[in-house]
Amino acid sequence: MTILLIACTPDEQIKDVTLPPEAESKSLEEIKIGFSMDTLQEDRWFKDRDLFVEAAEKAGVEVEVTVANGDDVKQVWQTEKMISEGIDVLVVVPHNAESMAAIVERAHDAGIKVLSYDRLVRNAEVDLYLSYDNEEVGILQARAMTELVPKGNYVYLGGADTDYNAHLMKQGVFKVLKPYIDKGDVTVVFNQWTKDWVPEVAQANMETALEVNHQQIDAVIAGNDATAGAAIEALAAYDLAGSVPVAGQDADLAGVQRIVQGTQNLTMYKSIDDLSERAVELAIKLALNEEIQEDRTINNGKINVPSILLPPVPVDRTNIKETVIADGFHQEKDIYQ
Ligand code: GAL
């Protein structure tokens, strides 16, 4: 068996897989991963898809990718189909954290383990959760904003409430804001989820926040760069873009460009290379019933899910080179064009 592994897997990590007897029959090239994605709406998801497929090919395993475009019924149907056609492990980015619980049970009935990728499936016996520390994303956003604006009116544009990441991020933000709110220094004058993370929804919410507060807004914390960009559009209509600090997430190209231009102050960089490579490595171990050492657990309403959470990196105009450019996440010429 050892010869087989070294032969087809150039990647270091895979070498330490010791196969339990029942997995003897499966060789790597026989493994098929089902990767069920919610959307390709944001830039990052294209990277997730392409880098995941690249890492799977490099590891010598097969992968099938489906995209549900925010449609729960479609995502359930797509995963049902992959399960019935015989995948060895399911990797899922749920559109709706609750709706995909049924699929986890279905997969287990077929002897297939489930890895929750980036977003956690709620109320189901998920085998492993791999993501960035989403609560930490919120904590780091709020810390940076309270340093810039220790007193004033805040707007919170949360992510989609169907996405458990949005809840974890919000938890982190309000953990940091609480003492400021209790002291009366900070008032959160507007706090709304953004349905399906749709930027137009965030822009409309920001316009309402500006109207009902007579433009007396001192800081904005948004769930990601796409919604931060939408908030900045709304601020620009009142000539406030660049004077009201805004925090986002994802380090997508437009977000980093706005940081250079000065209309956005912060984003959170999450290397998709690291996440996707780790996911393929772990998916293979799940398919081979290999033991996995988790960092911690997160309760998803049903169980304490074994979890591996990577650290997000705050990016502002002082460290763009050392982070997103150094990693090749974006090209310098594209950022400073
Ligand atoms: C979240 C993810 C973010 C974000 C968002 C919108 O779950 O962690 O990176 O972009 O989805 O798709």
UniProtKB/TrEMBL annotation:
Location in or out of the cell: Cell envelope
GO cellular component: outer membrane-bounded periplasmic space
Keyword field contains Ion transport: no
Protein keywords: Signal
Molecular functions (GO terms): carbohydrate binding
Domain Periplasmic binding protein: 33-290
Pfam families per the UniProt record, alphabetical: Peripla_BP_4 (PF13407)
UniProt xrefs under CDD domains: PBP1_ABC_xylose_binding
Name of protein: Ribose ABC transporter substrate-binding protein
Record organism: Jeotgalibacillus alimentarius
